[in-house]
Amino acid sequence: MIHIRSLEFNYRDGEFRLNIPEFMVERSEKVAVIGPSGSGKTTLLNLIAGIVTPVNGDVTVDEVQVSELGDSGRRDFRITNIGFVFQEFELLEYLNVLDNILHPYRITNALTLDKEARTRASTLARAMGIGDKLKRYANDLSHGEKQRAAICRSLLTRPKLILADEATGNLDPVNKSHILDLLFRSVDDHNATLLAVTHDYELLKRFDRVVDFKDFSPNNSGS
Ligand code: ADP
Ligand code: MG
Fold it and tell me: For the chain: N or C, fewer Cβ within 10 A?
């Protein structure tokens, strides 16, 4: 599902460098990404989603070489194929919860907002325990409720690939376990692939595989 080769990346400003000789995630695999703060975990997800592009090397997602697409091509590819749960949620504060969840359908012609999608949005919200908050503005939600709304939005398009950036950070244990169950169930139901950044070592056993950012270090011998 994901294949990265000879990737080199740096931001225009700053010292940060990311080198990944090779990284693969198979279809339907659930992979956790760990590593210290600032090591580039969010950057990796952004490269896979085509939010940023590599300086050298290539990023292929579901047979499409994302890193070769133009800006609007990458955007449409992302909205239609990838569910992204952002670290900071990226909910739009001037929209209510329902409109936030439906937002992917409103920003591309590649998706059609029909009755079925709307029904799915309410069903998802109910399953996530925010079914009674659909009319509430994103700003007036608790941290945990924002997280759930962001997860609903990422799942609405039934993406083949879900990228989750610390999707359960700062949640209390009961909520965390519940939300994770829902996320994993949805991934299983749709045979989707999950790549999730987490700091939560207790969760790692739920994944097929754990990737440690240390393994990408250019100083690392081996590969
Ligand atoms: P992590 O998610 O592992 O905490 P990030 O991928 O967010 O790490 O960031 C990796 C490094 O890149 C950090 O040093 C961060 O300060 C830097 N960085 C992140 N975004 C930008 C940006 N837009 N411009 C310049 N540097 C950035
Ligand atoms: Mg991060």
Answer: C
